[in-house]
């Protein structure tokens, strides 16, 4: 029997190509899934054949009921499709007017309103994926959801969250069908993530093929004949050396996907919104550095570095493939706890008391870290301002005072030869301090700004931990609720065992993540502090050097 | 014929000693002038003999008219005599009550009201010395005075004066009898001051026996059983190694005498009145340093270093002698231009055009120097505050941020051994920055404060130059007036020649002083700048060292 798929969204094929237009809800017969780059070939009810994005359809299982019930309301894809800013390559002169007005405000990549572009789409598609999962007989899902919401709001909301997605309630249990044992998906071996024991600790299995990605100097690109311009960052992964160009909104979209999918893993933050002033070169460079921090953390993370959406983000160079991958990521049904279906953990069941102890300790630690990294980022911002403002101008005042003395003395030159040497030495001293002032102005970009960028990263990660802990705690609460249901004979022993088993997996994931953060920061902070101190030493050595040269100009 | 003297002031001899009371106006016959320490022996009209202070009398010349006309109104010496604060040594327990009330407010040495203690006395005595000098036939002295006042007020008052003596009009020609040729005093060879030619320049003949004087750590002394306390500085001249104790008001008295006497020589300034807070140790030390600057400048000056009042100030250890020397200084009749009678200058007459050029250049130079040294002293004060305030607290904020990070990390210690080393290194980094903050607080006393003290000295000297130039210019104007008188046949050719000759001496004195300032500052500023730069280098090297030690605590 031939496989049938149902179109999830409308797709308009390019006329005069092998592409075929499909309409949301339409049933198609699959002909070939071996086209590559995210394309499938199929035949519609009218007998026409052609290519369409694989991500735009879902396979229809034989036992499935009428497909119309599951189809999500069509997201505003006409609009969303435009958010891949490269479409000016195909936009002719005659239609830039439409596109330009349509694009209004889109280039304010760093403004909050960017979020509304993509927001509602994935949110709806996520519900669409989760909803049709059949509840277990006699299980009051809505009741459970209510409980979880209560718990999470008291547990997780005390610490300020850095989550930016205003549509996603930060600590709602996402993907609870996994926990309840109703999600059963075959995960290919290649997608499985292992958690291993290392000494007393549990760790994510290390990345088999470590790689890194450089975020290169941003380019100011423009479209619509220069009417619109935007900043694109050039990313080059070490595994293929193929550069891709990404705008902030692409990072932002990626970030939303990651936060949605990995509710037990803190997602590193994107550049600080406080860094304002779009085309100021220094600020663009700061964002690059903070994006590099984001990318570095992603690359070093055993789970995140291998995620499909990240790989898509890193490698896709083609607009159509990008759209297809985008749709696919947005209809990912392994979100939240559901993601844990991909995990393979040690046989041994964790002791709840041990888990409780670790999470409690983590909670206390993260609270303390949170205020510490916040004060560090503030300190770095303040010191940067001090160096560039008063420190610089103080030095220059010292320099000007000496320089003016030299000028005054030169009014009385000519009769005593030695005065001339003194006068010029005093002027040089003035010049040296003015120069040191400039050094102060330049210096933060070598020490306090990178330090601040690093602690911006930590602020984001540390600030996400309360949500992670809340998500885990909500799962534990749900497990307890299931125990109650079992005690009331409302749940089968076998199903409760499955809940226990899966809860155990969730706890392993949390412990592995806590440990990952610990080992990462140990290496990272050590390097960070050394780099900072070395830069400070270099700076003060340069000051000493400058003063020593100045001193030599005076008659000994 | 025995020499007769006339008492200028009342003096009450100590009963039961060899001292004899004398009354202002009384004629005495000199018996012995070889008593020493400022005492003479004489006989009064009643045949009584005894000692009295030589400074209290003046020799009566045979051709002198009735002495009563010359006697100055008796200054309030009862009060003034008390300003030598050591009289508690003789004051018994039974009379400290009187002395204490009498002394009310006198220990506010650093306040302005101290000046009123000695003020009126010398001013009146100066007039007394000048007035009886007979005007030349047909010479309208009052007319000349009027002219000089006019000139000096337009020439000399434009630049802010640092003269503190509110009784002395700053640019009135003091001692004009010298210029007009009416002052004829035999100056002993030992008191003569020579001006020599050195290349193109004229210089004060170098000090034959250079010496220095150390101003030692001030002591807080008290009198009247601790009811009154004051700060006394210990001065030790290198030529006798005998320490004398001087309070601020003694310095202040000395300063007034010097300003009165040397109107062609800028007198170095006393400590800044802005340094307030009497018994704060740091401030007392600051005053000591500024007094040392004053003393150093005095010692290095070929004229000032040899002046009688200065020598008296440096060497007198006895209360009676102090008083006698004090009176003598206060009735010194070689004040202002009259002082020039002691000068011996090269034969060659100076060209007025040359002198005009030099004084004009000096005027421009001093104007520029004045604003330069003022901005330097302000800069030093500002930098001192910055180091002790924001620089210190900024460093400590950096330190605290690191320290708190270390504290936060230590909450999560125990499972990974290496964390512990990192945590302690981060805490150490915190400690290092807090320590560097303390170094910033300490630092100004090694660099910006001494630099400020040095420029306080220059501010005073440079600020006095406009008066010096005005005094010289007034003399030149007077010379021109004499030329007019001669043209109108109101002055003899011979007398005009004497005016020319003496004006030439005055110009030599100015040139010598301009040159002295130039050569002194050349050496001095060179040393000052080097000392400052070396201290700055030392400081930043210490910062580097501290950071390098800190860096070593991190795992390499």
From TrEMBL, chains A, B:
Residues 211-321 form the PX domain. It is found in: Cytoplasmic vesicle membrane. Residues 112-139 are annotated as: Disordered. This is Sorting nexin. The lineage of its organism: Eukaryota, Metazoa, Ecdysozoa, Arthropoda, Hexapoda. Gene3D superfamilies: Arfaptin homology (AH) domain/BAR domain, Phox-like domain, SH3 Domains. Pfam families: BAR_3_WASP_bdg, PX, SH3_1. SMART domains: PX, SH3. One of its GO terms (biological process) is protein transport. PROSITE patterns: PX, SH3. Residues 1-62 form the SH3 domain.
């Amino acid at each position: 029997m031939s496989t049938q798929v149902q179109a999830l969204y409308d797709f308009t094929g390019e006329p005069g190509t092998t592409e075929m237009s499909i309409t949301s809800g339409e049933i198609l017969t699959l002909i070939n899934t071996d086209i590559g780059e995210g394309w499938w070939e199929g035949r519609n009810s009218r007998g026409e054949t052609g290519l369409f994005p694989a991500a735009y359809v879902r396979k229809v299982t034989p036992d499935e009921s009428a497909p119309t019930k599951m189809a999500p309301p069509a997201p505003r894809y006409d609009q969303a499709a435009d958010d891949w800013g490269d479409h000016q390559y195909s936009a002719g002169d005659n239609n830039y007017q439409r596109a330009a007005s349509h694009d209004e405000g889109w280039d304010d990549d760093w403004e909050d309103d960017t979020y509304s572009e993509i927001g509602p789409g994935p949110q709806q598609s996520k519900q669409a994926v989760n909803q049709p999962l059949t509840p277990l007989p006699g299980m009051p899902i809505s009741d459970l959801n209510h409980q979880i919401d209560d718990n999470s709001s008291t547990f997780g909301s005390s610490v300020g969250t850095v989550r930016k997605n205003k549509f996603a309630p930060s600590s709602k249990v996402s993907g609870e069908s996994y926990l309840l044992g109703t999600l059963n998906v075959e995960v290919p071996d290649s997608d499985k993530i292992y958690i291993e024991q290392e000494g007393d600790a549990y760790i994510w299995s290390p990345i088999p093929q470590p790689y890194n990605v450089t975020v290169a100097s941003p380019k100011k690109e423009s479209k619509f004949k220069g009417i619109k311009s935007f900043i694109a960052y050039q990313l080059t992964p070490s595994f293929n050396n193929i550069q891709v160009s990404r705008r902030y909104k692409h990072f932002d979209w990626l970030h939303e996907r990651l936060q949605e999918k990995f509710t037990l893993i803190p997602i590193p933050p994107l550049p600080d919104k406080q860094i304002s002033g779009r085309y100021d070169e220094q600020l663009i460079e700061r964002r690059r550095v903070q994006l590099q921090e984001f990318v570095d953390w992603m690359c070093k993370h055993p789970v995140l570095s291998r995620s499909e959406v990240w790989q898509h983000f890193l490698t896709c160079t083609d607009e159509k493939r990008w759209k297809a991958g985008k749709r696919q990521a947005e209809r990912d049904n392994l979100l939240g706890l559901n993601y844990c279906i991909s995990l393979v953990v040690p046989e041994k069941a964790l002791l709840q008391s041990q888990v409780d102890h670790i999470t409690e300790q983590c909670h206390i630690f993260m609270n303390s870290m949170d205020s510490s990294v916040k004060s560090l980022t503030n300190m770095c911002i303040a010191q940067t301002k001090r160096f560039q403002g008063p420190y610089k101008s103080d030095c220059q005042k010292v320099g000007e005072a000496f320089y003016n003395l030299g000028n005054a003395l030169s009014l009385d030159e000519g009769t005593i030869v030695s005065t001339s040497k003194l006068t010029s030495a005093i002027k040089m001293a003035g010049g040296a301090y003015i120069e040191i002032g400039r050094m102060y102005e330049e210096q933060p970009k070598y020490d306090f700004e990178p330090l601040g960028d690093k602690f911006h990263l930590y602020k984001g990660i540390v600030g996400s931990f309360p949500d992670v802990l809340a998500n885990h705690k909500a799962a534990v609460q749900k497990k307890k609720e299931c125990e109650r249901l079992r005690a009331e004979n409302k749940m089968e022993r076998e199903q409760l065992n499955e809940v226990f088993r899966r809860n155990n997996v969730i706890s392993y994931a949390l412990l592995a993540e806590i440990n990952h953060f610990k080992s990462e920061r140990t290496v990272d902070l050590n390097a960070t502090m050394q780099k900072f101190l070395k830069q400070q030493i270099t700076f003060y050595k340069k000051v000493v050097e400058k003063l020593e040269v100045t001193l030599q100009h005076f008659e000994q």
